[in-house]
TrEMBL record:
Keywords: ATP-binding, Helicase, Hydrolase, Nucleotide-binding. Residues 57-200 form the Helicase ATP-binding domain. Residues 26-54 form the DEAD-box RNA helicase Q domain. This is RNA helicase. The keyword Ribosomal protein does not apply. Signal peptide: none annotated. A motif (Q motif) lies at residues 26-54. The keyword Hydrolase applies. Belongs to the DEAD box helicase family.
Length: 236
């Protein structure tokens, strides 16, 4: 834990939560991504994980729930996307018509699109499908993409609620939930929608049992570890 403390200081970051805190990761290759995905990440040419990634990845991968706060531009998107991809690789394949394994909620259509672009960039040529669902755009193309089955949905709350209520998708397989820019989501008055979403059959995101690891295949485990992540921007 002294080593962890020293690393946190070096990263100019602080963590709270149950000790021992997972040790920050210092390289992309330590995250446990399947080879094809790791190649895509390496190809981006980043010098290394940003602090929020370095600290957040092992926390999410150990099956902990997490609230992460970091400045705009600090790499929060890959901070939640890469562990989602590691988690996904250990799940049974999504069948046509099945709902996603990872659900990312975002307050605006622009942000949803941006997250989906990042997801697409780092899953190109792999079996991972990511659909962005947001209002103010035709439902038709979103619905047809959902029909084939998807691994990741990035959505604004209102459109997601609409799609779930009309049974175009379901959230029974969701075991990785992210609220991106959660502070803004509340500022923008999305509380009624996010509250309504809690009434539909999204599995309860429990704090996982100690020792659960998203990198373990679910067949070796009784249940699938579930993770909830809340991303917030730094207060001004
Ligand atoms: P945030 O959500 O924290 O505001 P983003 O996730 O949108 O930030 O990331 C901002 C930019 O930084 C994006 O262009 C992204 O591709 C890039 N980025 C992500 N991770 C890294 C990294 N480890 N090193 C360098 N750049 C990165
Ligand atoms: Mg962001």
């Amino acid at each position: 834990q002294d080593e962890v403390k020293a690393l946190m200081q070096k990263l100019d970051a602080s963590v709270e939560g149950k000790e021992p805190h997972p040790k920050p990761l210092q390289s992309f290759s330590h995250i446990g991504l399947p080879d094809d995905l790791l190649k895509l990440v390496m190809a981006a040419g980043f010098p290394g994980p940003s602090p929020i990634q370095s600290i957040g990845w092992p926390a999410a991968l150990s099956g902990r729930d997490m609230v992460a706060v970091a400045q705009t531009g600090s790499g929060k998107t890959l901070g939640f996307l890469l562990p989602a991809l590691v988690h996904m690789a250990a799940q049974p394949p999504v069948q046509p018509g099945e709902g996603p394994i990872a659900l990312v909620l975002a307050p605006t259509r622009e942000l949803a699109v941006q997250i989906q672009l990042e997801a697409t960039k780092f899953t190109r040529g792999t079996a991972v499908r990511c659909v962005a669902c947001y209002g103010g755009a035709s439902r038709h193309s979103q619905v047809s993409q959902l029909r084939g089955g998807v691994e990741i949905i990035v959505a604004t709350p209102g459109r997601l609620l609409d799609l779930v209520e009309s049974r175009e998708t379901c959230l029974r397989r969701v075991s990785y939930l992210v609220l991106d820019e959660a502070d803004r989501m509340l500022d923008m008055g999305f509380e009624p929608q996010t509250t309504s979403l809690q009434r539909i059959p999204i599995p309860k995101i429990d704090t996982p049992r100690g020792g659960d690891d998203l990198r373990d295949a679910p067949s070796k485990k009784k249940g699938i570890p579930k993770v909830g992540i809340v991303m917030r921007r730094c207060p001004a």
